[in-house]
User: What shape does this take?
Amino acid sequence: MNYKAPRGTHDIFGTNVAKMNLLEQRARVIFKKYGFEEVRTPIFEAASLFMRSVGQITDIVEKEMYIFEDKKGRELALRPEGTTSVVRAFVEHRFDVIMPAAKFFYMGEMFRYERPQAGRYRQFRQIGVEFFGVSSPVADAEIILLACDLLSSVGINKINVRLNSLGCQNCRPTFREELIKYLTSIEGLCEDCFKRLKKNPFRVLDCKIDLHKFTYIPEMSNYFCNRCRYDFDLLKSLLDSVGCDYEIDNKLVRGLDYYTKTVFEICCSDYLSFNTAFTGSEGFVGSHFAVDISHPIVLAAGGRYDNLVEELGGSSTPAVGFAFGAERVLIVAQGNLMLSNRLKELVELLFEMQKNSMPLTEKEIDNLFKRVLIDVQKKSSFDKFGYNNVRNCNYNEIAEQNSTLFNKLKEVLMIVQDSMLLNKEEIDDLFKTILNCLVGSSLNKFVDQNSMFFNKFKETLRKVLIATQDSAIFNSFQKEEVYIAIADQKLFKEAFSFAVRIRRDGLKNNKNVSVFGPIDGKSLTWQLNFADKIGVCKMIIFAKTEFKEGKVLIKNMKDKAQMEVFMNEL
Assistant: This one.
């Protein structure tokens, strides 16, 4: 008898294991920069845990959970999502009491019985984060930016943040009544919508069958209480302050019942241009699956759930988080890799033509690259990924001797880096190796005549491109935790923008820094006590007088020594 993997599951091996490991390693590095620590929970829990927290009438509970009884008749379930398990662990180990704020990330297998399709499996690997203890929208903004940074780190840049607020327990009931009135006026709702309308009308808006009928739904923003309005406006303002684009989607509700206030999704449609079905040998999708090209794909999603910790037996604790399916993200990232492979083929074609004494003119080379790079100029920003850094190195004069060929080859490697397989420093070092070989040689002779030297360069570049198919080598993470504090609430947005910058770029003396804060609405004394409790080594304090002079205060939390430092020196 021939056995096959159960429908909706898949084997991961070969280069796909390397890609999965690479994604998880990238995630760990970025999570550390945002101050998150790893937590691992069991893959099965009491079934009632998910029924209570996720919601009895969600698709997950009604149709998708794998529920079974153990030998003692206890009803258990394979976890369908990660948040509920992390909250259960948070309460069980009394973190709600002993930690004023906590940040956790997780990576693990989830299980849902649903129709298998591209990037959606019955057993899939989910990566997510949960941020407990901060009610301010600064936590919401931090989580959204974290999700965007992570996707960007694997070369997925053309993303769209969809944002909404579901209000709170004070203002949602009024909106709920108006929504029911509107939905009952619509004829021909599907069976699922009728069931949801009676128990949870918000879930009707998540219906894929009747979604096109909901043209004039009431807007939650018209029913916000003062607090919800302030929080949502502040969230949008924080995202605006750091250049994070988003759009408000009044129909966005998410599929789980525990969400309050902020909900968001991060979508990508850029992969559609590849219009390709991934095969079992090349990607994570079997040959009987195809990428759905009718809609942008949702890569990450999350929101705020301020009541869930208390509902599961803990103290009242605000929380916000997000998660994404690793396989789905890798499918989209692999779409970018397909483009780099096309460029690799072009480079190899150029080498073969030169090797066989068929040198191309600069114009012919340029035209070959233009055929492929015309899409790249629309889809990728080389400068954003350090192209300027490469271009402005001290060996730039060498490269400029043949700018057409060498700049195009630089772009090849930048696209490869765009495909999450190399970082800027590695590309820079590889080009130094290549260009050092060219010192003292005429590049024109190199291109047209010196076949032996050309073959040496060909082999070097071949090794570079082959290396991109393997796992990247990551620098060890030097742990340095800092807290961004504000002595003057008017400096909150400046402190927030500064925190975003050092999470992304690091400090001059350390590129891998864990950053906490800032948190608005708290006294400096509260922030000092908070920083002590979470054990950071330094505080960077934004104070009115020093900020006017372009300075911040640096406080060593061990010896309490304090000094003024110019911001541009950090």
In short: The longest helix spans residues 326-355. The radius of gyration is 26 Å. DSSP finds 21 helices and 16 strands in the chain. The domain at 15-171+224-334 is CATH 3.30.930.10 (BirA Bifunctional Protein; domain 2).
